[in-house]
Amino acid sequence: MKEVIEGIVVGTVNVENPERLIKSLGGNVQVVRAPCYEIVVHAAVLAKRAFERGTNRAKTLGGEFLLRLAGTLQIREAIKDYGVARGLNYLVVFGGMNEAEAFLKEHGLEQGEAVHCSKEVSKSLFEKSALTEVL
User: Fold this and answer.
1) For residue 39, is pLDDT > 70?
2) What DSSP string runs through 21-84?
3) Cβ of 77: how many Cβ atoms within 10 Å?
4) Helices H / strands E in the chain, number of each
5) Is 19 exposed, middle or buried (0-12, 13-18, 19+ CB in 10 A)?
6) Which domains does the chain have, with CATH numbers?
7) 92 HSE (CA, 13 A, CB side)
8) How does the average pLDDT of the chain come out, rounded?
9) Is the pTM of this model over 0.90?
10) Cβ contact 14:112 at 8 Å
């Protein structure tokens, strides 16, 4: 896990039972499946900045993050495409390292190895994520 910017911690976790996590997600914590680490970090930073500027579309940072990650304004669509699933997922905590570590411990999650995208793939995913700003 790493604090990517102040107030955002991102890590990779292996999820055995997604249903057990769902009730703990939302507000300041999300666990998502995504093609690569870079797009998760990008969407998290965009979500935090949207709240700071007052241009957020969702009521919570976790919801805004999902919208940014999916490049849509429909939370249901974002969850369908990027919601937590069995296997490798990314944990995003809008807070500090202590909160992220507590979440890992509380849910018995093991950290995994992040998948990294090429610059070309990252660029296309960044563009999709940024679309939320103009929709």
Assistant:
1) yes
2) HHTT-BTTEEEE--S-HHHHHHHHHHHHHHHHHT--SSSSHHHHHHHHHHTSS-HHHHHHHHB-
3) 14
4) 6, 5
5) exposed
6) 1-87+108-113 (3.30.2380.10)
7) 34
8) 93
9) yes
10) yes
Q: Give CA–CA dist 60/72, Å, rounded.
A: 15
Return the amino acid letter for 100. A
Is residue 11 helix, strand or coil? strand
**β-pair type (2-5, 8-15):** antiparallel
Predicted confidence (pLDDT) at residue 133 exceeds the cutoff of 80: no
Question: Is the pLDDT score of 34 beyond 90?
Answer: yes
**Cβ(97)–Cβ(2) under 8 Å?**
no
**Alpha-carbon dihedral sign for residues 91, 93, 97, 103:** negative
Q: Tell me: the pLDDT tens digits for 50-102?
A: 999 999 999 999 999 999 999 999 999 999 999 999 999 999 999 999 999 99
Q: What is the pLDDT of residue 135?
A: 58
Angstrom distance (rounded) from CA 110 to CA 126: 27
Give residue 18's pLDDT. 96
CB 109 within 8 A of CB 91: yes
